[in-house]
Amino acid sequence: MDLAFMRDTFVSLLAGVPLTLNLALTSLALGAIVAMLLALMRMSGLAVLDAIARSYVFVFRGTPLLVQIFLIYYGLGQFRPTLQEWGLWGFLREPYWCAVLALTLNTAAYASEIIRGGLQAVPHAQVEAAQACGMSGFLLFRRIVFPIAVRQALPAYGNEIILMVKATSLASIITLMEVTGIAYKLISQTFRAVEIFIVAGAIYLILNFLVTRAIYVLEWWLTPHLRHAPAIEPPIEAVHV
Amino acid sequence: VNGNATVQQLSYFELVGFGPNGWGASLLWAAGMTLAVALCGFLVGAVLGTGVAWAKLSRSLVARSLADGYTTILRGVPDLLVIYLFYFGGSAALGAIGSLFGAEGFIGVPAFATGALAIGVVSGAYQAEVFRGAYQALSRGELEAARSVGMHRWLMFRRIVAPQVLRYAIPGLGNVWQLVLKESALISVTGLVELLRQSHIAAGSTRRPFDFYLTAAALYLVITWVSTVLFQKAEAHSMRGVRRAA
């Protein structure tokens, strides 16, 4: 182990962390919106919407992410004239937007099932109670259903965030220089795969560790009813009687 | 083979079919390669996973910490990095061994073995958790009963533990198998001609990337769908003697 080399590698790889986080956060945020729509389609009770959302999830969960990335990055080039006409080529020519699009569509499929599980786990009695208080529609969703669903879905969604942080590494295959992209460049220059793997792996482990901690904190904050009541100090006089 | 102008005019079904200009046979062969490398990786992972699960359940603190470290690292690091480690690390190691015998330069490692090993090491971490969970679902009473009729550890493992752990592990193993199938697409970066690599080659030579990646996606979908059905059947078969609550 060459510690000086590993320190230099660490500094080089840190330069890729902003792009890794950027890809993960952008696609998670966009994916959450699509996922919400998909989950609402699944629960709409309309057979057509349900079937569309169901097939979407089936297709995106049943094929490798790398195939989806290639389909968008290389595949859409086949329709370049049409895309230029529609003014979309400016986006789809950029590897960054292709990666974001593929990651967004992919995470939306997984997250929609998580959100659906969360929404379905909302106790019906809570909804009835809210209705009895006169809430309905969006107000009921915003005040009662959504907060409870988020609470239920949070642990599973935390896993999805970690999977997404790992999945951003595939963007390196379409030339984006995030952490894995830089690691690949360094490995092919120096052939010191083990040392570079240790450093790059450590960076991902740290990122994922921070994600799990953040999820724990968020879960703690969202579940005040599950915390122990603060211990009440006995009055000093009583102890010394 | 005709020039590009004519390839552009081929219909989709001529392109991916089995005719003179069709890539059907190569794509199916490559899909077989995907299945083969995924299956080998899954089996390597099953062996590793069993060992690691055993270490996690053991009383030894050292074994438990090593096993915990293994599952934490391999599940927290991108699979692509692990593949690069095995691909480049393997060549570096072979090169070092080769130079002892006077060989020089870069020695490529066999892509299939690298891929199967990398997938195996990653899926082993996931399978370890599946096996550990399944073992903990065993009824303690049955293990005590086996001991009380005088079974030794190995006999008890073979007759009581293994069959039931496998039964409880089937749903979890199904999930890991799906992960492994999709992960096998990453092996294409090492040059192994599996489904994605073959589609890449075909897309490059015909300039019809969308058609080929869509076909690849469809073939992956067929494989994952058939796997889902098979695992459901296996689960139903293994649970046929189990009475369920309600």
What does the average pLDDT of chain A come to? 92
Low-confidence stretches of chain B: none
Largest sheet of chain B: none
Beta strand % of chain A: under 5%
Tally of separate helices of chain B: 10
The tally of beta strands of chain A, per DSSP, is: 0
Q: What is the rounded distance between the termini of chain B? A: 63 Å
**Alpha carbon gap, first and last residue of chain A:** 65 Å
State the helicity of chain B in percent bands. Answer: over 70%
The percentage helix of chain A is over 70%
> Class by helix and strand content of chain A?
mainly alpha
Could you please describe the fold and organization of this structure?
- The complex is a heterodimer of chains A (241) and B (246).
- Chain A is mainly alpha-helical and 241 residues long.
- Helix content of chain A is 77%, strand content 0%.
- Chain A has helices spanning 3-14, 17-42, 47-62, 65-73, 80-86, 89-92, 95-120, 124-132, 137-167, 179-190, 193-222, 236-239.
- In chain A, helix 2 (17-42) crosses helix 9.
- Chain A is flat and about 70 Å long.
- Chain B contains ten helices and no strands.
- In chain B, helix 3 crosses helix 6 (111-136) and helix 4 packs across helix 6 (111-136).
- The A-B interface holds A 58-59, 62-68, 70-71, 74-79, 162, 166-170, 172-173, 180, 183-184, 187-188, 191-194, 197, 200-201, 204-205, 208-209 and B 72-73, 76-82, 84-85, 87-89, 91-92, 95, 178, 181-186, 188-189, 196, 199-200, 203, 207-211, 213-214, 216-217, 220-221, 224-225.
